[in-house]
Amino acid sequence: MAFNITRRKFLQSASLAAVALPLSGALASESGITRSPLEPKGSLQDETVVGGVCEMCFWRCQLVGKTRGDRLVKLEGNPKSIDNGSAICARGNAGIQLLYDPDRLKYPLKNVGERGKPKWKRISWEEALDECGSKLKAVQDKYGPQGLCMFPHGSTAKYPMHFMERTLGTHNVSEASFFQCRGIRDMAYMATMGMPPGEFVDMPNAKVIFLLGGHFGENIHVSHIKQYIQGLQNGAKLIVVDPRYSASAAKSDIWVKIKPGTDTAFLLAIMNYLVSKNKYDAEFVEEYGQGFDEFKEGIKDWSLEKAAKECDIPAAQIKEVADMLAANAPNVSIHPGRHVSWYGNDFQRQRSLACLTGLLGAYFVKGGWVPGKEPKVGKTSWAKKEHDGEHNLNLNADEESIYPYSPPGTPTELIRDAALTGKPYPIKGCVIWGQNPIQTIPGQEKMKEVLQQMDFVMCVDVMPTDATMWADILLPEVSYLERHDLVKTGTQWNFADKHQQYITARMPLVAPMFERKDQVYITNEIARRMGYEKDIPVQTVEELVEKDLSVANLTLAQLKQEGGIHLREGKDPYQMPEDFEILFFNEDIADAGFPGVPTYIPVEQGPAGYARLLYGRVPVHTFNRTQNNIWLNKAMPDNPVWLNDQAAAKMGLKDGDVVGFINQDGIKSRTTTVVKTTPGIRADSVYMAHGYGSANPLMSVGVDAGVDDTSLITKITVDPETGAHGMRNNFVKLTRDGKIIDIPAAV
Amino acid sequence: MQYGMIIDLERCVGCHACTIACKAEWEVPVEFYRNWVFRMGPSLVGNEMTSTYYPGLCNHCTEPVCVPECPADPVDMTFTNFKTGETTTMEVAATWKDPFDGTVQIDKDRCIGCGACVDACPYNARYINPALVDDASEDGKADKCTYCKPRVEAGFDPACVQTCITNARIFGDLDDPNSEVAKYVTKGARGIEPKGGQLGPNSRYYGKKKDMTLLFNSHTPELADLAQVRRRAMLASMVKPAMKKIKNLGLLGIVGALMAKELLEQEDRNKAEPLS
Cβ–Cβ contacts within 10 Å for residue A251, how many? Predict the structure, then answer.
């Protein structure tokens, strides 16, 4: 039976029809107050269920659920939380629309059509798991474990990923969170001061907050935004460096309208100015710095004027920024950023940020970079086994790393190139778990070719996505509201408050519906079928969570009894760790053949008539994952393209005009969006929100909404130190009524 | 007592948590909203680049224009001050301004769904909720923000205030000089008064000068043409009971159908009439 789900059909099905009905009409009044049955009841009378941890994004706010009968009607922040408190964002609030989305995956499905043009047949779990186990085993037997690859994302993907990496022994795992997002940041800071930086800036207690590309307000992580706004309310100055007048720029004291790709030049000029004018923290550098002389020498050419020319901003503004930072050091938050896979010169920029923080003495001080001291919990998973480096694509014939600063896993491009060429070996089995490689990784057609040549592709997700269209077997996962899962730890959001730590574990707020299963069940059943029964570390996901909690002397029952969150006394986060050092010049980087002192590498400029395609976020969506959520879709149904108003006037375009895109490689957007003209963006760039323009017709709400920016990112750039992607090196023209419109370079 | 809400634009990041929490709390149909967030700019205010938000909701006006437009038959209604227990009785139609807390509320049972209040509100804060139907109205009922009256009376914050991630929404009694909301008013928080209107909006905004300028320039509404609102309301109040009567008497045979058709056409003609 071909299995096609439409919203209408779903609503007609009796089992869940109640979901679509207004609650107030369906339920008898219980409250003492006499109220019209036409009046919705509100959530006050509903039962509160504790232990929720949000996954509408990956910040993991703590939740409580409001339930009416067996139905979850509302999500709220857990009032016991010292992180997000009783607040959750739009996406968090819209979680129930994911939970009850009629388009959600419900049963194991087999693709009886083609990859990319699927026809789905409902099959039993037994059949689905047999097929996954036997097909993955067949690839493993024929090509070795290296013939398998995986694209994982999210907390449930960790367990199957470790099975692939540790038990089966393939290196070919590529996490989007590393190779298309924050991996470069983590590696650059580790190579500078020894730790991945997270977003650990003590903004509430800062005198200056410095954001390079960060666009809070468009990008929302609740406790982080609380920190940012508290800092501004406490009087912090805000510096925002962005080609666009972002939501953060709108709250800034200084907006640096920088030319895209030139950020490192800007940072080097600031640092050279601080050093040459003796405005840096010499004592701090003396105490913790290494290689400062080489650093000083290496950046000395970067005058304010040179950078001003390169970055297309006034020299006086660079000086103003530098002076503001120096005057308020060390209480300055130099934000490390999060998504930093921009131009393919990103490792050096992130190194620059880490060094600038050091020059200002802004590590482990009030307002500076300060990681909270979190409690320890377990990390139960598949046992690590010895696997040789023989089939590691990131090692060349001489056993040297091609990308020596690669984040954990294998750079995506190495996997894709091996798959397409069969060299050094074929890659013929693919597991996609919670990731959407079609709309995450640049080179969409290349990704499709990679998937097309596989012997077997399996996907696990909660929703249909553009990636699930490429599966042979598609498995429905329980959502974050229906499963046990991770253990989450942290501290109170503002270090000015009493020092506290918290431990929480994700617990289900409602029972799963249909035939959805969790990651431990799915992985274990496949492992059994591949002959790894004896390696299985836990039988259930609850067992995994209990093991992790036991390290902190906790149990799920105790957590539940304590309102879902365990609080304990915290530690002073400002204490400088022993052996802390900052490598201004890093000899190992130099030995590996890359600049050991932070260095600016110019990026390619676009051809005439094209503008650089920039992308970012909107507060109501987490990339593509939330596109089908009906509340969030209605809040921001498309992704208007920001176009400089003077350029727009020359092009004869006005607000609301419907346009498409064509990029430098002649690739056209499949869908259209509308123009937003504004003086708040440089004329050499256009901007749109990422994650729109889904093509999967099973997403009945989100399909064809707006334009998919990733589809236009066909020129692939790789950061040379890390192997992670740079995704802002593509250029577009607009199209309207079949005509191509040049974007004037200068206005 | 006059409840009011302050929205501090210096704190607001435009995240929409408030609008979605409201939808969940009050089962607001997907296509409608009791509160909203519009983004403005970036555009130039004078020489300054500016961008901010209009997080809007019912203003629970001191002199609401919506309340007098309700054509439903008035009844005596007894109100209780939930804090003191004091009561008072007054004659109200299906929507009124509460004599104790100053909020503007709707009696869904008696609302005939004519839409007069919806049309009268210059802020578009009301809508006809098509999911709410009964004998008095098959077309739905007027619906809007209640300042979360049931939650507030139970000692909780309004849902939008509770979920606000930056505490940009502050709720309280504007008449109490010690309340945080009153202090904001002293600092300069302002409501958006329609052109030529004196409604006294009690949802008020506070922010940087340029942001306030952009907000007020972009979203100061016009007052509705009340003559047109009234004509439509009058027709609806005639048509609706008539329709009901026809149905109740089981008269919807040929004669009834013709009567109903005529009445409806009359309404449509009036809707289509240009403004005088």
Answer: 25
